[in-house]
Amino acid sequence: MAQSALRGVVALDGPSGTGKSTVARRLASALGAAYLDTGAMYRAITLAALRVRAAVSDAEAVAHAARSAELVMGTDPVHPTVTLAGEGVEHDIRGPAVTGSVSAVSAIPAVRELLVDEQRRLIRQAVKQSGGIVVEGRDIGTVVAPEAGLKVYLTASAHARAQRRTAQDAAAGRGTDLERTHADVRRRDDLDSGRAVSPLRMADDSVELDTTELDVAGALTQLHKLVEQRGLLAGEERTIR
Description:
Layout lengths: L1 E5 L1 E6 L6 H11 L3 E4 H14 L7 H10 L2 E3 L8 E3 L2 E2 L7 H11 L2 H22 L1 E6 L2 H5 L5 E6 L2 H14 L6 H17 L12 E4 L5 H14 L3 E7 L2
Parallel strand pairs: 2-7, 2-8, 3-7, 8-9
Antiparallel strand pairs: 1-10, 4-5, 5-6
C-alpha cells in the first residue's frame, strides 16, 4: 500500500499508554516525515536533573539543570535518538526513577518554556527539510503547534493503557507488574491534567481517537484516513512499513 508524503504538521496528544509513540513513528515513517517525541525531551531533562542530584521539587535547580543540559533530539522515525552531552540515553529515560519524577519536572514553567521553544524550532526545521513532521506529546495541539494541520487526541481505558505499559516494560527488560503500572498511569493522569502550566487536555479542534479496541494497524488506518481528509498528502509516493 502506498501513501503520498506528508506536508505539514500532525499533532498527536493524549495520556501514556494510548499507543502514541508506536503509531506516531509508524505514521511518520510511512509518510516520509520527521518524528518528534516531546515526552522524551521532558524525560531527558528529568534524567539530567537527577544526575546532578537536583531535587525535582526545587524548580530553580531543575531549571538550571535544564538550561545546562546538552540535549539533542534525532527526528528519524526509524531510529529516533535522544542524547545528553553526546551520550545516547534512550534506555535510561525509560527507567523507574525518571518515570516517577517526570510529571513534577514537566510542570515547572521554566522547563516547559525552554522545551516548547526547542520543540517549535525542531518542527520548523523538519517542515523546511522534509516537508512534514508527526509530533507526539501532551500539549502539542494546544500549545506547541496549535496551527497543526491535523490534531488527534488519543484515548484508551486506564486498564488497557496499564496493560500496554506493562507489556512494553517487560519487553524492554524493566521489571514491573500490572497493578503497580495501573496505579502509575492514574497518578500521571492526575498530575498531567492538574498542572497549572499546559495541562493535558484535548484541543477544541482535535479529533478524538479511542484506541482501547484498536491494534496498531487499526489505529494507523484511522490516522491515514484523517491525514488524507485534511489534504496533507502530496508528492512522492511512500510505502507503509
